[in-house]
């Protein structure tokens, strides 16, 4: 994946959980929600349709595995999946587990409250919860 660089804002706002066949797997540094991002390791891609057809399918496989794993791990009420890119142009797909009654329910999480960065112990706990989810994403494809 020559030439790929993670956008600086994504790098600053996330923890890397590893790589799948196509995507970087990132944990957003906001403990308020289980919130992961997939970033295809392809330089200059802003939209999913810009990926080659097989890459689009791989993104869907990885996204589906991530969503399924997150909902199983956290027993959420809804999974929000979005690729906005208004502030970060690099293609990245958010996967956010939502719960009825969470601080932003039923609205979007963006701009609702300042991020709550993970404390070290909470981060370790979240990483342990996510380990089987990440393994499933890495196995997708």
Automatic annotation (TrEMBL):
Catalytic activity, EC: 2.1.1.-
Record keywords, A-Z: Methyltransferase, Transferase
UniProt cross-references to PROSITE patterns, sorted A to Z: HIT_2 (PS51084)
GO molecular function list: methyltransferase activity
Pfam family, one: HIT
An example Gene Ontology biological process: methylation
Domain (HIT): residue spans on this chain: 36-105
Matching InterPro entries: HIT-like, HIT-like_sf, HIT_Hint
Domain of life: Bacteria
Protein name: HIT family protein
UniProt organism field: Marinobacter xestospongiae
